[in-house]
Structure formats: C-alpha cells, structure tokens
Amino acid sequence: MSARIIDGKAFAADLRERVASHVPAFRERTGRSPGLAVVLVGEDPASAVYVRNKGKMTRAAGMESIEHRLDAKVEQDELNALVDRLNADPTVDGILVQLPLPPHLDADEVILRIDPDKDVDGFHPVNAGRLASGLPAMVPCTPLGCLMLLEDELGDLSGKDAVVIGRSNIVGKPMAALLTAKSCTVTVAHSRTRNLPHYLKHADIVVAAVGRPQFVHGEWLKPGATVIDVGINRTEDGLVGDVDFDSAASMAGAITPVPGGVGPMTIAVLLRNTLVAAHRREGVPLDESAI
Ligand SMILES: Nc1nc(=O)c2c([nH]1)NC[C@@H]1CN(c3ccc(C(=O)N[C@@H](CCC(=O)O)C(=O)O)cc3)C=[N+]21
C-alpha cells in the first residue's frame, strides 16, 4: 500500500482564508479587528522565525498583530506585568507567550496569569479542564489542527481505535481529550510504554508527538492506518518527524509529511482561536463548527 499524503499546508491555507472571511463582519460590528499579542523572550532564532510567521499570517488574515520582544534577561515580575497589561487591554483578544522561556523564568506562572478567555494556545489549566469536561474552551492549536486533518480524511471518527504517542500538556493530553470527545477508543502511549508495536497494531489512528526523530516504524502500523506526525526534529538529514516516513508511507492509508503537515495547521488554528476568542469576548455570534 502507498499512503495518501495529507496536505496540511493546503488545508491550513484554506482555514486561514475561512478565518479571514469573517473579519470584515466582526470589524463592522465592533469597529476593530481581532487582535493577537505575541510575546517573545530572548532571541532563539527558531522562535524568532515562528513569531515572524505568526505576525505575517495574522496581518494577512486582516487581524491585528501586537508583538512584544523582551530581553532574554527579563525578570519574571516584568513578564508578569506585561501579561497583566495585555489581559486588561480590550483590543487584545489573544495572548501567546512563545515557549520555551529562558530557564530562569517560570512558564507555568506565566500561563496561569493569562486570562483563560484570551488563552489562544489553550495552555491554561482552566481551558484544559473545560476541554476535559466538554465545556466551551480554548483548545490547543496543534491537537485541534490534527483533529481537523483526521476528520477531513476519515469523516466520522466514532468507534475508531486511536493511539496518541506522547502525554504532554501541549499535544498528547489535549489530543487524547479531543479524540475521546469524538468517541474514539484512545490509548495514550509514552516513553515508559512497554510494547508500543502491540498497541499500534490495532490503531486506526496514530498521532505521534514524542519528540524523537523517526521513532515510529511502518512495520508497527496497522495496514491502512491514518498517521499524523506532530514531530519537528532538526537532524543532519534536515527536518524530520517522529515517524519514519518512508516505511510508514508503505503501510499507512494516509500520512502527514514533515514539513507541510501539522506545522502549518498550528498557525492557522492559532488565527482561528483568535477569531473565536474575539467573537466570544464581544458577544458577537459565530458558527465555530463551520470554521
Ligand atoms: N506558546 C507557544 N505556542 C506555540 O504554538 C508554539 C510555541 N509556543 N513555541 C514553539 C512551537 C512550535 N510551533 C510551530 C508552529 C508552526 C510550525 C510550522 O509552520 N512548520 C512548518 C515549517 C517548518 C520549518 O521549516 O521550520 C512545517 O512543518 O511545514 C512549526 C512549529 C508553534 N509553537
């Protein structure tokens, strides 16, 4: 079997257009555009590139990008004070503090300080709790992007066997919550899982978010499985995912490439979440399920 390649880049471009199409009506209703504030601490080159791309795409969607660059040596109090100001600013609908932070800063403290209604990353424990409880939440961008690709590929996910590899707060845990809400039977595997191939052999859906280059081998997969590769690993061979693409593509029914798969979806969903946050905050109705 030779897998269909899931074009995350094209899906993300469509999603960004759908988001952009709702901005003019919001502006007419409220007299302003949705605003996304991005905070970058230090000058990690990879982070700087991401932040620049986010700003570009935010503006291309007709939304306001508010960028704050802080010195790598900034103190926690100063970062906290910036978050407080962004929380209080009515023109800011979304706040994203780029992670990881330099080691002297406490990311959990910053995340807890962000107004959950402006938490477009969906990292605040209130949003994790809302998601787990089936309440309206801000949903983390990467797992929501993966879910959109899965539903586009498979339609109804009800009853499917899904294995999520990785248990982070950013991807694995919210991914498992989303798939559970869609009535999948979900297994969460991780670094201590003893027999990963055993679980993968039954999986209709595999989401790999372990952070180890080319970790998942095609021979472990159920023939025809749908494979979503969240990994972004910079190696000598260039950018590779958490899945060994060539062997997986000969076993899977469909697979996301790296690059061009999940990555572009993360940014597109960030814009979607900003649009959603803006509408909720202003009480402007929006059919969220159509975006
Ligand atoms: N608070 C916070 N929220 C984030 O969402 C967040 C973060 N911090 N810190 C860093 C990670 C990383 N991240 C990516 C976004 C887009 C691509 C992306 O567009 N990748 C492209 C290009 C990859 C490349 O060439 O580098 C692709 O996979 O095709 C990748 C990674 C968001 N992150």
TrEMBL record:
Keyword Amino-acid biosynthesis: yes
EC number(s) per entry: 1.5.1.5, 3.5.4.9
Cited InterPro entries: Aminoacid_DH-like_N_sf, NAD(P)-bd_dom_sf, THF_DH/CycHdrlase, THF_DH/CycHdrlase_cat_dom, THF_DH/CycHdrlase_CS, THF_DH/CycHdrlase_NAD-bd_dom
Residue ranges occupied by any Tetrahydrofolate dehydrogenase/cyclohydrolase NAD(P)-binding domain in the UniProt entry: 140-281
Entries under SUPFAM superfamilies matching the protein: Aminoacid dehydrogenase-like, N-terminal domain, NAD(P)-binding Rossmann-fold domains
Chain positions recorded as NADP(+) binding sites: 166-168, 232
GO molecular function: methenyltetrahydrofolate cyclohydrolase activity; methylenetetrahydrofolate dehydrogenase (NADP+) activity
GO cellular component annotations of the record: cytosol
Pathway given in the UniProt record: One-carbon metabolism; tetrahydrofolate interconversion
UniProt keywords, alphabetically: Amino-acid biosynthesis, Histidine biosynthesis, Hydrolase, Methionine biosynthesis, Multifunctional enzyme, NADP, One-carbon metabolism, Oxidoreductase, Purine biosynthesis
Function, in words: Catalyzes the oxidation of 5,10-methylenetetrahydrofolate to 5,10-methenyltetrahydrofolate and then the hydrolysis of 5,10-methenyltetrahydrofolate to 10-formyltetrahydrofolate.
Name listed for the protein in its UniProt record: Bifunctional protein FolD
Lineage: Bacteria, Pseudomonadati, Pseudomonadota, Alphaproteobacteria, Sphingomonadales
